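Final report, results section. Input specification for complex C-07:
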Amino acid sequence: VTADFSGLLRELTPRVLGVLVRRFGGFDECEDAVQEALLAAAQQWPAEGVPANPTGWLVTVASRRWTEVWRSEVARRRRETIAALLEPPAVPPAPAEDDTLKLLLLCCHPALTPVSQVALTLRAVGGLTTAEIARALLVPEATVGQRISRAKQRLKGAQFTLPPPAELADRMVAVRHVLYLIFNEGYTASSGPALQRIKLSAEAIRLTRQLHALRPDDGEVAGLLALMLLTDARRHARTDGDGALIPLAEQDRGRWDRATIAEGIALVTRALATAKPGPFQLQAAIAAVHDEAATAAQTDWPQILVLYNLLHRVAPGPMVTLGRIVALSMVDGPRAGLRELDTVAGDPVLAGHHRLHAVRAHLLDLTGDAAGARLEYELAARRTLSIPERAYLESQAHRPSS
Amino acid sequence: MKYVILIRHNLKALELWASMPAQLRAEGLAAYEALTEDLAASGELIVTEALAHPSTAKVVSVRDGEVIASDGPYAEVKEHLAGFYLIECDSIDRAVQYAARIPEANFVEIEVRPVLDNISVDM
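Structure output:
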């Protein structure tokens, strides 16, 4: 029952915050007031029931709180006369549709670092408390508190309006990136039973859904949502009972979530048919081809290679290069892949990167060079920063040769 | 990404520190304070501690189920850990910039190491 309340509260957070910022200005103080209103609701609603107009209730309580703080601030500056004139308006203005978008753009403002953008987005748009964010990100609460207050200081004077169209496109890139970061952060494999953690991947999907509802014609938002869904659909098959990683080719596809896959495929299909194909759409399309294959052997690798070639043109990067080489190997054979790998090994980002070694190990394995593969798996295991991935690579390195 | 900044001392460095004029040492401590404050203010600090002198350490081992705790054999050890920072920032380059602000970087080597993460990735 409590979960329902917190879900509703988090759904309403950006709308309430939007109303306050439009009414009073000053994102920092408004955000504090909304957090207090959310706390009050979390305490009162379970006992007294949800009010008939929950948004109005939250706006009223938050406005009252804002007024109190403002008055005491003004009183502190000995300007009581002005404070006495201020009364909260009786009827809250209706929430505006694009408040959520404006808030997302503000939280992902270019003046902030990505870690601050993530924390602020989770609080101001996601409606999470600082403590919940800290538990989810596995950092101390004081650290998150500092990130948020510092971010809000930096935003002082920033306008709560949609940027001009020319700027909007760039700013949307940052919003999508932050949502993607939150989704990836949610991919932590282990969560001890004692640890009650907000599912950040689910939170990222929820926020991206909201954004997609506001901007249905933004192909990259649709692509991002599709990518999240198509990746998340494999969640139950990605790890075994011990939390060890299972590579895509070995996953039990019966455990993939078919409904989520269908939704993701529909989204990316529509986006690719109507919008200019961007990196998230292409990544989603690649995920969709994997998800559509009934078995790993039935994967349409030529199609994946075409998509990687497009992705390489639109958004080149080291991980795209490697993904393309894996696809190429599946189409033209591992030796073709190894030759291609040699031509990119000098790339400063890829040189010594664990993924380069992991791909080479896999390809050497396919050519029958077990000793060479083992060496490369060991190099990869030593260089990865991910515990589950290291465990997987070590198991590949030490697996009895067949 | 999380990084740990390890400040490793050696006896020579300790002697050097002890022989420094009081004002220089005070400047060193102030530099530490400023570094810690900046890291805390930016939300990048997770934890930092300075460690007591290695002569106060116990060395613990378990052999055949028996716990043996002895005073550290630090006379022969060339290096010891003097303190650390655990930070979270956007790149190792930024962590390196912070590490370079540690006063001892002028006479010992500071190590910056990424922390292993539970984040798993699609293979």
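Residues 63 and 88 of chain A are 7 Å apart (CA to CA). The radius of gyration of chain A is 25 Å. This concludes the modelling results for the funded period.
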